[in-house]
Design a protein that fits this description.
By secondary structure, this protein is of the alpha/beta class. It is built from four helices and six strands. Helix content is 38%, strand content 19%.
Length: 128
């Protein structure tokens, strides 16, 4: 059975609201995973998992619990890479699909920009 996983700490509220409505309408399992408390509708197929504080703790939980055929909503490229390797589909909150063909390129680009920033080059940030 399909489960939709949301990397919820950084997911925009509007994205979560759309997913809440879709989950309610289709009765699809929806799991929000985050370090900080999240309010979710009180429905049997929507749940929230609060993980401990720490870098990538929510990501690790999603990787451990998602399965092939699930859908993961995240902006986190390393997380996307890991769940795609498990057979899950990935969509970024602004509806961009990541797959086995493009996630490796995005990961390399992310790592390259991280290296530049580490070297003192100002690369800017994502648009608001």
């Amino acid at each position: 059975m399909l489960t939709i996983w949301i990397d919820a700490d950084a997911a925009p509220r509007a994205c979560k609201d759309v997913l809440f409505r879709a989950s309610q309408r289709k009765k699809v399992s929806l799991v929000l995973v985050a370090n900080s408390y999240q309010t979710v509708p009180k429905l049997n197929w929507i749940r929230f998992v609060q993980v401990g504080k720490g870098f990538d703790v929510a990501d690790d939980y999603i990787v451990e619990h998602c399965a092939a055929g699930d859908l993961v909503i995240t902006n986190d490229i390393p997380l996307a890479d890991q769940v795609i390797d498990k057979g899950a589909a990935v969509i970024r909150p602004r509806c961009e699909e990541l797959d086995a063909k493009n996630v490796k390129q995005r990961l390399a680009q992310r790592d390259f920009l991280d290296e530049l920033r580490g070297g003192g080059v100002v690369t800017g940030g994502p648009p608001p």
